[in-house]
Each structure stands twice: as C-alpha cells, then as structure tokens.
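Reply to dn_fold:

You asked what the input looked like. This is it:
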Amino acid sequence: MTSKMRATLVTNFRPAFLALALCFAHATAMAQVPVAPVAEKPGDKKLDISDLESKYWAPKDTDFSVVQNRTYPKERKFFISPQFGFLVNDQFSEGTAFGLSANYFFSERYGIQLSGLTTDLELNKANKDLARLSQEAGAQANHGELVSTYSVGFNWVPFYAKMSVLGKRIVYFDMAFTPTIGLSQYDQVVETGNKRQQALTYGFDVSQYFLFSKWIAARVDLKNQWRNEDVVQFRGNGVNTITGAKVSSKTTHDTLFMLGLMFFW
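and this is what came back:
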C-alpha cells in the first residue's frame, strides 16, 4: 500500500477513531465513579419463619414452648374466701349455706385447701305440702338434713386463661379441681326431735377464680359431697313402726353452689 493510500485511509476514518476513543474514555470514567446502593423497600425481603411454623404445629416438641407471664400470680400465697350459696339438689330440703375457705398455693398449679360450711335448711314446698297432709293421714318423708361440713382438699389448677369483657377490660381466671375428705354433721328428722349424727364425707369441688387485682378476686364453687347416712322413721304408728327407729342406710349426695370473694397476700 502506497503512502498516498495510507494517508487517504487515515483521513477518511479519523472521525470514527475519534468517536471510539471518546466512548472508551467515557466508559472508563463511569466505571471509576462509585454507585450508591439502591435502598430496599420494607416489603422486598421477608423473614424465613418456616422452621418456627413447623415447630408450632408439631404435636410435641420439647425444644419449643410458650412462656406465659401471669399478671396476678398465686404461687406461695395465702387465700381467705368467705362464701355464700345454696343447696341445689336435695329432694327434701332447700335453703342457704355459709362457708369459709383457706387456700395456700405451692405453685401456680398445686395447693391445699381447708374449708367449712354451715347450712340453714327447711322443707321444700313439696314436703311442706306433705307435712300438712301428715297431720291428718300420718304421712311424712323419712329423711336427713345437712347441718355442716369441714374438710381438707388438694387443689389442682390445670387451666389458666384471659377473657375480654366488652372489649374494655381483661379478666384473668383459673379453673381448679379439688378432691376433699372431711366430716359432716346431719340431722335425722324425727317428729319428737331431730337427732344429730356425723359421717365421713368425700367431696369433689370445681372452682373458678376470677383475678382482677393484686389482692382480691371473685370465686365460684360447685361443691359435691357424698356421705353414708342412716335414715330413721319420722313418725311411728306404735305397732309396725317406731318413731326414730332406723329404716335404711343410703349414700347421700349433696351439691352446693357457692359464691365468694378471695383475699390473698
């Protein structure tokens, strides 16, 4: 190639060379300029909780448990509860009951209970009608009446929950089951004068504690008691029956519905 031809090529392609050189210089300069990171939106990246979900729905996992802080704890506290209620299942008598219970909880789950109650009973309407008839025909039901019960029990509290009241207040409550053993006094009802007797008594209480302050709570109890009772003749005819003579022995089941307040410290 002659020098004349080379000069012609250089002249013709010089603009192209200059353009390429400018592009290369601009690209090099841009590569040296630091680029600011792009901020991520809050919803762009999600936390992986699949492992946590699998443990939550597992039937049993000793490595995963829920810690519940109680607002009003019972552990190592004494409770005193005055109570008032009714005898609800006696086929012969009706009336009120007054009680007092003392509890001490070793933990949130377990405790002991001492309780006592007395009753103020009378014949219910059906037996009052029968009593009026007995004045003429000599008919009267042979029965006994609960007078008092004193017992000791063991508290087991498997349930604890929170309840919203009208969306304005949270009430905390426990449900307790308490087997008891104690001594009851009952009257054998006799026309010539009642006879006071006593009997070993087994019981099972279902209690609900509604805790709404650091020192006071409401309490509801359904008390069930069983005792072996001797039934005697209310009125004898002097020939085949004798007033006050034993007629039978039976297991008596008393159910009492009690309301009260709990003071604790």
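The mean pLDDT is 81.
Hope that clears it up.
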